[in-house]
Design goal:
The chain has seven helices and ten strands. It starts with a strand and ends in a 6-residue tail after the last strand. Helix 4 runs parallel beside helix 5. A hairpin with a 3-residue loop joins strand 9 and strand 10. The mean pLDDT is 94. With 254 residues, the chain is of the alpha/beta class.
Length: 254
Amino acid sequence: LLITATITPDMLFPSTSNIIAYKAGLKNAWTFDLLAACSGFLFALQTGTAFIETGRYRKIIIVGADKMSSITDYEDRTTCPLFGDAGTAVLLESTTEDVGVVDHILHTDGSGGKLLYLKAGGSLHPTSHETVERKEHFIYQEGKAVFKFAVSRMADVSIEIMKRNNVSNEELAYLVPHQANMRIIEAVARRMGLIREKVMINIQRYGNTTAATIPLCLWEWEKKLRKGDKLVLSAFGGGFTWGAIYLKWGYDPV
């Protein structure tokens, strides 16, 4: 099984997962895309985990990939400095050891949909000369409102999942936050009472790559992680979507 989290698919259909499987030569697999904006990787990771837990699947690839430059207006200085492009993938496998995804808390709230979204291009507002001229195929967001929601939701859900699993700040190896912007990351860390050394941050190199930010962090910190390290992955995205996953890292550095 291959699941792709993206809001910038190559096309509406076939799915990006379909294309990836073909190009990668994956013959004995089925695939689908999942859209949850910046929370997409968490939603896809938990979906893949659930499929593993059924016992019917042994290996699942989770892709988080977005080409944000394709929907960014470079004349809009409120959004264009924020975003970057990236593609990432992780492999999930079943295990009998005390490692892997332990718990998840995921949420959606459609009332925030018009605070961060793409106005046109879907069946509600199909592409036309008018929608192109009005620049409705670029990211639109109301920054102050999104900031307030993101900080409160990411911090609350991260604290909740730590309390639910009796994980203290001292025991937590790292918070792995969605790399929305530095102010949101710092505000979430402050509300959680975490020192900066326990927060993975690489936004200064890649920007906000949407569904790719969290796995990008895991890739960069991979050599520092040890088997059994306790991590909380946390994200907030358009929709609104948000959530946290608590996991124990599965292996030592090679």
